[in-house]
Amino acid sequence: DSDIHPRWVASLDRIETDAPVILIANEVLDCLPARQFVKTEDGWAERRVGLTDDGALTFGLVRITGGFNRPDFAVEPGQTVEISDQQAAFGRDVGALVREAGGAALLIDYGRSRREAGDTLQGLRRHRKVDPLEAPGETDLTQWADFPTVLEAAVHAGADVTGTLGQGEFLGLLGIEARADRLKAGRPDASPVIDRQLARLTADDQMGTLFKACAIFSPRTLIVPGFED
Asked: Domains (ranges, CATH) in the chain?
């Protein structure tokens, strides 16, 4: 029997703030809903899901009814802009939590480090990419994390934040190569596997650049490992 008895909560506001919080959010942001807006030759429209004449799911453009502010970056006709109020709310809630309780949150996800256009919606099913509208309820839907929006919301909630680093750079600053060398010294027979795993996490053509890391922390926190100047 373990002396550790976790308490599961349904939302961040159920976490007690009588002690500093250490929060790790790995691939959380990309699961949150987002809306897509497309610039057309006639203006802006929202991309939504509808039905074809034979009842199949399909994407289409409709008139925007609200909740959209034109982006402050260049967008060409045909390009898509993604907005996630839920990602912004997550950043706000995490910022408020660490501001009140102290501590820090580490966010790791695949996403963008600057505001820009792009359609990043994808469907994943049985470890392969599929049409997002294939097999509703059985296909995982994801979109890139919008780190600038998340961090801005955390700052507005009173927290301090870091910038974003590529996962490869972040893990390198934490000493992942030294850790891999130590593991290989203890298990020389496992060296090829460890090298492949290291490359998977840090190489630019794998997870090293697309995946990014950032931190949201209490103003009372002096150092966030991996993000020191």
From this structure: 19-31+85-217 (3.40.50.12710), 35-83 (no CATH)
